[in-house]
Amino acid sequence: ARLSDQDQSLMQIYIALTEKGEGQWEDVVRTIFEYCRLMHQTAKLASASGCSNSNGNDSKTQSEALETLKRVWNELIAVRAINFHQTSPSNAYAFAPGVASNVRVFGTEKCISSGKLLDQTVDTLPLTHFLSFLEKLTPENCIIERCSQMAWDEKMGMVADQDSGIFGFQKEKWYGVEYHVSPIDSSVVEDWREGKKTQLSTSSDKGTPRRSDFASDTLHLPHKNRYIPQDLTLCKDLPIEAREGGPHISKQLQPPTLLRDNDFGRLWHKLDDRYCLPKSSISFLIRNGAVQSAWDDANNCWNYNSDSAMHTSLLLDSFYDGMAQETYDAGLAGLYWSLSKSSMGLTFKFSGYSQHLTDFALQMMRKFFTDQNQTSKDVDVNGNSFLCERHLATNKDRIIRHLKSYFKSKRADSYASYYTDFLLSSRGDGIDNSLRSAKAVTLDSLNEHYMLLSGMKGTHVDCLFSGNVSDMEAKRFFDGAENIMNDANQRYKKKEEPKSQKYDLGPFSRRLKPGEDIHLHFQSDNKEEQNGAVLMTFQSSSLPGFKGLKLSSKESLRQSAAIRTICHMLREPLFNQLRTKEQLGYIVSSYYNVGFSSHSAPVLESPEALDESNISTATTSIDSIVVNVLSKKVPPPILTQRIDEFLSSFRERLSNIPEDEIKSHTDALSKKLLKPKQKLYEETSMHFQKICKYSPEVFDSTKQLRTSELPWDSAKELASSIKELDRVDLMNAWDNIVSGKKRSRVVSHVYGKTFPLSLNSADLSKNIVNLKSLNDIKVKRNVLSQFSGMTESSRVSMMTRLLQRKNAAAIGLAAGAGLLLYTFLGGSG
After folding, report:
1. Closest C-alpha among 473, 201, 194 to residue 358
2. CB neighbours (10 Å) of residue 614?
């Protein structure tokens, strides 16, 4: 049944439950119907407003109900109209399907504006239709789908003769998924239908009707939405020509301007002159090693720590839960936020209509850093504390269940990717260790971790405020954020803390040894997975990928351009041969992949000037060619053999391909790279990623940021290089990465039910390293070096010289102290 289609249901509600919530699912459904009755009774009161037989109190309640519905209706009209008019055009591929569907239903005149309420006013409130709609939201008219182990176990324990007709255990036709259909007990339906006797009263919030006798006393119709923008004008700092006749998508992108660079961090600003919308975006990275690492005193550096990473994950999830109700209105009004963790630190992102964005962003940061109470066993009805037992228990339960089911619920190619990442980029010890970390988290340990994050000195931020915003407004936000974080630092700071915050915070990748061919072999634990998978990754281990002309060599630019072009040329022939002709795989794909690895690097090239103040974090780009096949037709090793045979034949094709066909590919790819950004968030995301990855290494000797050296134009530089490629460039890149003796690759094999893993599954060729357990991978990881733009000998030499300088300083200090002591004693003698 197409229950999700608009012509099949009135509406749908999705709720994710904890194990405790699943055990009380009937109470959850009862609450939903309680709210449906609240809406229905409000609509009935509103429809009776103005009746001559109403007494004074009834008339007042009826009028308040009508005014509430009119206010909500008017807000809905305003938000939809704003969203319709204040949006950038999407690309044709995304736009066409929806319009085509709407033409069929609404005709050509309404195909774009249907559902946007553009011709509605506060006086056109469809009260009769609304009431008719609400009358259908009853238990008798409801289908409930439960998807959980508990629900399945309940049905498995039923007596068989209870199943008859359309009810009972069944199997889906195409995918073979088993499911069970049963009627809902009549007493349960009656409970949902009747609930508590409902009597409406007026809340203290401007006459909003609410339940006076509901058990939790929290259900109410929406309050006034204070976030709906009233001012949609463009920034006065924009030139007149930019404010009029927009948008100007074809205009060349300009990089952000650095407004502030101090001990707290850097503020970047970009006034939008391309999209001409009253929207802005804030991206705010807090570089903090404690987010997913622990300080190593012996080596004076941050090391990845699964306990830290898990505490941060649960902290952020708890914050999301704590803010869900408070930010609901903001989301309806077009203000969005997120808080995420990465190897660099914590990242706040805020976007939406400009009028309220700064205040909304500061409010959310204040909630995270200063407004939250100390740990409490429960949260009050207003959600004043996100660090509480309720939010922790909910998210801890979700993460534990996710980790427990990870290896039992996914496709084989997902596991192939997991094992490849475990070898090349993971610093953790696997799912089991993450599960242990999750189980060990307590409210006290979470609060301690929160105080460590909030109170740590030396954290450095990068902030990009772009869009319809003046530089004065950007500074106001940045100053406000600094005050908030400084207050938190004073509140939670510790007497002793790590002295360094900046070194090696960022993504991590390992470099494969030239000529090394590593094969991973694992059996899928998903008992329903019949497919096997092969994920083949060719790493450009001999030469770093391209970052920008001022940060990379010409050789890196040429090779990155060639690798991207090869991937563009490879995709279609690979699919046609293995998928269409040979029908080897359910999924056959190939693609270009770029990874990154951050590492310590000297700011100055002069060895004499090397000290701790002249070492910063550099990020190296890593090019890879990836082939992915999911199949139940042949075993994974045979898939690998067929992929290798195809790649051998493709080299022959590459050596004979006509020059005009090469030009066709290079022109298409360069055109794609130069395609103008269509959305503000696309531009902001691109600029912010470059700021986060590359700004730490772009310093001069005085620690001043050389903004011109950030790779703002890397796409243009790549496109230009791609257009200049010839057959020799492509053949050289192919032999370096894919088929030469020094190629470096990882082939991840995952075996399904059709062809399970056996003792003789692995390729025993002498040049192949076979790994069949997580412990094998961990051992192998220990002998692989981190991928960096420096050679390993250069890196060791740099760190050795730095250590020697530290020891020399310590010896000098000790010698000086000894001289003073000797002189003093000699003088007294």
Report:
1. 473
2. 17
Residue with tokens 């460590």: 452
Kind plus residue range of the DSSP H or E element containing 793: helix 792-828
Which helix or strand (DSSP H or E) is residue 532 part of?
strand 532-539
Q: Which residues of the chain have pLDDT under 50?
A: 1, 197-216, 375, 380-383, 501-502, 604-610, 701, 791-806, 808-829
CA–CA dist 217, 450 (Å, integer): 32
Tokens at residue 411, please? 């496709």
Calpha distance 620→595 (Å, rounded): 8
Angle, helices 389-409 vs 443-455, to 10°: value is 100
Longest CA pairwise span in the chain (Å): 114
pLDDT of residue 585: 86
What is the per-residue burial (b if ≥16 Cβ within 10 Å, else e) of 802-812?
beeeeeeeeee
pLDDT in tens, 538-596: 999 889 999 999 999 999 999 999 999 999 999 999 999 999 999 998 899 999 999 99
Full DSSP string of 486-509: HHHHHHH--SS--S---TT-S---
Beta carbons of 492 and 454 less than 8 angstroms apart: yes
The pTM (predicted TM-score) of the whole model is: 0.88
Determine the length of the chain: 829
Torsion sign over Cα 32, 36, 37, 42: positive
Contact 454, 446 (CB under 8 A): no
Residues 6+ apart with CB under 8 A from 220: 38, 203, 205, 208, 209, 210, 211
Burial class (CB in 10 A: 0-12, 13-18, 19+), 593: middle
Q: What is the pLDDT of residues 297-316, one digit of tens each?
A: 887 777 899 999 999 999 99
List all residues 6 or more positions away from 597 whose beta carbon is below 8 Å from its beta carbon.
506, 507, 508, 509, 619, 620, 622, 786, 787, 788
CB contact set of 288 (below 8 Å; sequence gap of 6+): 345, 346, 453, 456, 459, 501, 505
Centroid of chain to Cα 229: 27
Query: Which contacts (CB < 8 Å, 24+ apart) does range 25-32 have?
Result: 25/146, 26/188, 26/191, 26/192, 29/144, 29/192, 30/191, 30/192, 30/195, 31/219
| DSSP per residue, 282-344 | EEEEEE-GGGTEEEETTTTEEEE-HHHHHHHHHHHHHHHHHHTTTTHHHHHTTEEEEEEE-SS
* Conformational region of residue 124, where left means phi above 0, alpha means psi within -120 to 50, and beta covers everything else: alpha
Closest CA to 288 of 426, 456, 481, 437: 456
